[in-house]
């Protein structure tokens, strides 16, 4: 008979229910807000919804054959820092292809703040560049004898206003003189470029520019010396940068104030009154090292994080960062004295660029040429732990009187939203948005 076992089962279940009713389980603790800084290990744990990847039309499309005859020779004149010159040169590659011109490798003058020997080949591997650009654009190291004795017809496009068109403004001079030098325009319309010209620009920027063997060896030596894993932090708070911003800062040390006043001179006086407030709230003021450390804490970056400081010489108020994040290393500390002393500003910048691309994560307190190029190269390599710290958000929240925990929570949300959407993580000319 099956009656007895059924009776036992029913009795057991009844007893279990009675125990549950008499001794209920303890209440579940309420979950913490997902925006709270304590709820996340760090900003990198946030799930992204967008990634920027190289566009398929560039990587996979068949090349449009180069015309049999060139319209002439173009040299790109580049000025400024390393990554500004890199940007202008890449633009020049696209322009040369657009105009069916042969590209002459640029010569960067000492006056343009290049490195000690002022040559393209002192920083980049020229032979590698020419090989990688095969089929995209014709490139020569040297001009033919009938051209080399002449100075190029100079066309400065950098100051042109409005949307600049090279076919209308440069091609007639190229056809007339056969050798022109140009300074690319900031406001050019790349969206009007045919895809073969865009492809040449993209190939140059992300596949063809490689450091020289000796410089890459030094960069790898530096990379190996950095404790792993590490965050590369591009921190901009040098006297000339702060002076250029025309922002006011209180509480700076006497040493910093002296350096800042010297950099300001007579033509870079800081904004005052309401104008200063508006300027700061627009995000125009560089973050101090102390403000940077506060944002890192708001993003739950652990205080024992290994940080490589990618920064120029003369960084002010660095104690504001190192008093909180003690594992900060610099290239001057990691390289031997001889290695470091023989380097100039832009070869040092090349090391920062290389290390930042190969870092476990990258943050920048600015949105300059280096930051854009590093972010784009990291996206090209599939490295998405990249974030720009928001000067505008920090200024806006502090102007409202937020401080302490409330300020941290507001900064967490602002940066979380940026990271989720991948804002500013790549250059739109060569990259496409992919929904995750």
From TrEMBL:
Keywords: Carbohydrate metabolism, Fucose metabolism, Glycoprotein, Glycosyltransferase, Membrane, Signal-anchor, Transferase, Transmembrane, Transmembrane helix. Pathway: Glycan metabolism. GO terms for biological process: fucose metabolic process. Coiled coil: none annotated. Its main location: membrane. InterPro entries: FucosylTrfase_pln, GDP-Fuc_O-FucTrfase. It comes from the Eukaryota. It holds the Pfam family O-FucT. One of its GO terms (cellular component) is cytoplasm. It is found in: Membrane. One of its GO terms (molecular function) is glycosyltransferase activity. It is a single-pass type II membrane protein. Belongs to the glycosyltransferase GT106 family. PANTHER family: O-FUCOSYLTRANSFERASE 13, OS02G0726500 PROTEIN-RELATED. This is O-fucosyltransferase family protein. It comes from Gossypium arboreum (Tree cotton).
């Amino acid at each position: 008979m099956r009656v007895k076992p059924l009776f036992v089962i029913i009795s057991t279940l009844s007893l279990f229910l009675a125990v549950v009713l008499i001794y209920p389980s303890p209440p579940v603790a309420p979950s913490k807000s997902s925006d709270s800084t304590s709820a996340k290990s760090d900003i990198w744990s946030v799930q992204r919804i967008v990634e920027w990847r190289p566009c398929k039309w560039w990587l996979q499309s068949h090349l449009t054959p180069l015309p049999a005859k060139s319209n002439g020779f173009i040299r790109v004149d580049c000025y400024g820092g390393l990554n500004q010159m890199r940007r202008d040169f890449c633009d020049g590659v696209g322009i040369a292809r657009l105009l069916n011109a042969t590209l002459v490798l640029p010569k960067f003058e000492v006056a343009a703040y290049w490195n000690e020997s002022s040559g393209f080949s002192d920083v980049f591997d020229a032979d590698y560049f020419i090989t990688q650009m095969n089929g995209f654009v014709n490139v020569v190291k040297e001009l033919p004898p009938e051209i080399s004795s002449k100075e190029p017809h100079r066309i400065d496009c950098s100051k042109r206003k409005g949307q600049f068109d090279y076919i209308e403004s440069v091609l007639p001079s190229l056809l007339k003189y056969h050798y022109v030098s140009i300074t690319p325009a900031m406001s050019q319309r790349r969206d009007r470029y045919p895809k073969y010209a865009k492809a040449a620009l993209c190939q140059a920027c992300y596949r063809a520019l490689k450091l020289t063997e000796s410089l890459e060896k030094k960069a790898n030596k530096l990379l190996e010396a950095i404790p792993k894993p590490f965050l590369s932090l591009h921190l901009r708070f040098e006297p000339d940068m702060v002076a250029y911003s025309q922002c006011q800062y209180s509480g700076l040390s006497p040493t910093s104030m002296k350096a800042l006043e010297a950099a300001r001179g007579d033509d870079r006086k800081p904004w005052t009154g309401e104008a200063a407030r508006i300027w700061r709230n627009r995000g125009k003021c560089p973050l101090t090292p102390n403000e940077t450390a506060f944002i890192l804490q708001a993003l739950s970056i652990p205080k024992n994080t290994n940080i490589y400081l990618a920064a120029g010489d003369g960084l002010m108020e660095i104690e504001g960062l190192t008093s909180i994040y003690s594992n900060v290393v610099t290239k001057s500390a990691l390289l031997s004295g001889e290695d470091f002393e023989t380097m100039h500003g832009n070869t040092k910048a090349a090391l920062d660029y290389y290390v930042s691309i190969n870092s476990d994560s990258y943050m920048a307190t600015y949105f300059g040429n280096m930051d854009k190029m590093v972010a784009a190269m990291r996206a090209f390599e599939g490295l998405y732990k990249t974030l720009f710290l928001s000067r505008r958000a920090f200024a806006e929240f502090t102007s409202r009187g937020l401080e302490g925990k409330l300020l941290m929570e507001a900064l967490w949300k602002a940066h979380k939203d940026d990271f989720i959407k991948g804002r500013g993580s790549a250059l739109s000319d060569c990259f496409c948005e992919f929904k995750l």
